[in-house]
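Data card: per-record layout.
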Amino acid sequence: MNNTCPKCGKKLSPFYFKETCPYCNVNLLYYKLEERLEADAKESQRQVDNLKKLVDTVKSSTVSSPVLLVRLVLFFTPLASMCLPMYDSISLITIIKSIINGGFNLDDVLLPVISMGLVVVLSLAVIISSLFSSTKNGFLRNIILSIINTAVLIVMGVIIGGVGAGWYVTLGIYIAEIILHFVCHKIILKKRSEEQV
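The structure for this 197-residue chain is written out next.
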C-alpha cells in the first residue's frame, strides 16, 4: 500500500494497514480503482507491443530470408574451425584435452588461448549485433564489428605466427560474413521498401 493517501495526499505511516484514510476516510484500496486498472492495462499493452516489435526485428534480421538464415548459421562455424589447428598444432580440441589430462601449461599456449578467446567473444558480439540488423544502424554496426573481428584475428596470427588450417578457415568465415552483411543489408532494405508500399 502507498504511504500517501491518493485522495487527500496526506502522509500515512508505513505501518498503517487499515483500508480507509484516517484523514479523509476514503477507501485506500478502491479509490479510483477503474482508472488504475485502465492505466495498468495500457502499460501491459505497451509492454506486449514492445515485445512484439523486438521479436519482429529479430525475425526480420535473422530468418526472414534463406540468405539471412545462412548468415546466422555461419556465425556459429568459428567454433568448428577452431577445432582444426589454429596455430601450429594448437587447436581448441588440443587445449581441452590438455586441461582434462592435467598437462595444461598456460605459458606455452597463452597467446593462442587469448586469440581463440577473442574469436569466441568477438563472434558473440557479431551474433548479438546481427539480431538487430534491420534497425537503423544495424548494417553499420555489423560491418564495424566484423571488421574488428577480422582485424584482431589477422593481428593475432601475425603476432603468434605458425598459423594453421583452422586460422585460414576462420579468416575465410569472417570474410564471408562481411560479404553476407552487404547481401543481407540489400535484402532487408528491399523488404522494408516493400512493406512501406
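Known properties of this structure: The two ends are 51 Å apart (CA to CA). Residues 75 and 157 are 20 Å apart (CA to CA).

See the next section for split statistics.
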